[in-house]
């Protein structure tokens, strides 16, 4: 069987799943769930990934994600150290179906409970994101409910009721898994979508891990321009900011701004910051995010600089 394509580009949607080694349990209790969800929330923030749905099973998990920066491998590798499977999704045609597949996943476990009890348990299950779609009081801050609700006309009570009916129809009826469509290609989509993606891959002659042609050029700030503007705003010379061996919050902030605002990967940022390893970039960014979470002054400073960079990008300096 041909190996499914590992495809990355900005604003792509994926179904992602990962199992424990030898199908062993990775979630044994609520504490395990909570720790994992905390790590997930941090990873979504670090890699600017949007999460539309999740389900945590005893020995595996399912995600529906959107990657504005085309960085699925970075995100998944950081979150869970192991191999993962991913299906690229044609959002307009299959996003709702994939979200339903994820939310119904707990019902695939063997159970002797009557149907009504299993349905009620699913509606209140904390190990999936479904409850937040049906009841706004049960929402998680790190879930992007808009991703799905937009396909139902917006985040309204009427749309939430429609989504509940959609989920229940999948529960009551024998509906084929949308993942079956992706077997062999790694793409859940129509023929035209699959052909378009294959043409993009065919143009890329480098390693499938790189795929710069698929990332395409972003219209955001160029890295060199951002560094120059940030140096002026922080009143620190560019040479000092990008000097290898220097560790400071300002330097970590520059790395975070480069990652969020430029079409650039962590290895590329490392080369611009004194030829350091991508893991050093990742660690610096994580320390910064932790600091901003616990020291509001730094979070405010980051937000102010982000706003000023946006203003400066519209004028010549």
List keywords for this structure.
5-stranded mixed β-sheet; alpha+beta; 5 strands
Write the layout of secondary structure elements.
Layout: E1 12-19, H1 30-46, E2 50-57, E3 60-67, H2 72-79, E4 85-89, H3 91-103, H4 115-123, H5 130-134, H6 146-149, H7 157-172, E5 187-188, H8 191-203, H9 212-215, H10 223-234, H11 238-241, H12 249-261, H13 266-272, H14 278-294, H15 296-312
Helix pairs in contact: 10-12, 10-15, 12-14, 13-14, 14-15
Total beta-strand segments: 5
Query: Strand count, sense and closure of the main sheet?
Result: 5 strands, mixed
Mean pLDDT: 84
Characterize the overall form: globular
Taken as a percent bin, the fraction of beta residues is: 5-15%
Radius of gyration: 21 Å
Unreliable segments of 5+ consecutive residues = 207-219
Count of helical stretches: 15
Strand order, sheet with most strands: 2-3-1-4-5
Q: What structural class is derived from the secondary structure elements?
A: alpha+beta
Helix residue percentage: 40-55%
Termini separation: 55 Å
Could you give the order of the helices and strands? EHEEHEHHHHHEHHHHHHHH
């Amino acid at each position: 069987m041909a190996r499914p394509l590992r495809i990355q580009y900005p604003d792509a949607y994926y179904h992602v799943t990962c199992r424990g080694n030898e199908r062993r349990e990775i979630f044994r209790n609520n504490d395990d769930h909570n720790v994992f969800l905390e790590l997930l929330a941090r990873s979504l923030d670090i890699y600017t990934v949007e999460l539309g749905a999740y389900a945590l099973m005893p020995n595996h998990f399912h995600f529906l994600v959107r990657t504005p920066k085309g960085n699925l491998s970075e995100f998944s590798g950081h979150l869970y150290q192991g191999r993962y499977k991913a299906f690229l999704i044609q959002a307009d045609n299959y996003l709702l179906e994939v979200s339903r597949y994820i939310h119904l996943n707990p019902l695939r476990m063997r159970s002797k409970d009557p149907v009504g009890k299993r349905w009620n348990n699913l509606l209140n299950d904390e190990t999936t994101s479904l409850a937040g779609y049906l009841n706004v009081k049960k929402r998680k801050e790190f879930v992007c409910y808009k991703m799905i609700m937009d396909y139902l006309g917006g985040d309204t009570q009427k749309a939430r009721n429609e989504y509940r009916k959609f989920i229940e129809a999948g529960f009551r009826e024998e509906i084929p898994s949308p993942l079956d469509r992706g077997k062999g290609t790694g793409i859940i989509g129509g023929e035209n979508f699959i052909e378009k993606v294959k043409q993009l891959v065919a143009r890329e002659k480098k390693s499938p891990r790189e795929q710069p042609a698929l990332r395409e050029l972003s219209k955001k700030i160029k890295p060199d321009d951002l560094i120059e503007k940030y140096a002026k705003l922080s009143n620190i010379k560019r040479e000092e900011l990008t000097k290898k061996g220097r560790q400071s919050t300002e330097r970590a902030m520059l790395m975070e701004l480069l990652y969020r605002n430029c079409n650039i990967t962590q290895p590329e940022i490392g080369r611009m910051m004194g030829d350091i390893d991508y893991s050093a970039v990742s660690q610096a960014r994580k320390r910064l995010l932790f600091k901003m979470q616990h020291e509001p002054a730094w979070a405010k400073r980051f937000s102010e600089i982000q706003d000023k960079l946006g203003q400066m990008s519209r004028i010549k300096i």
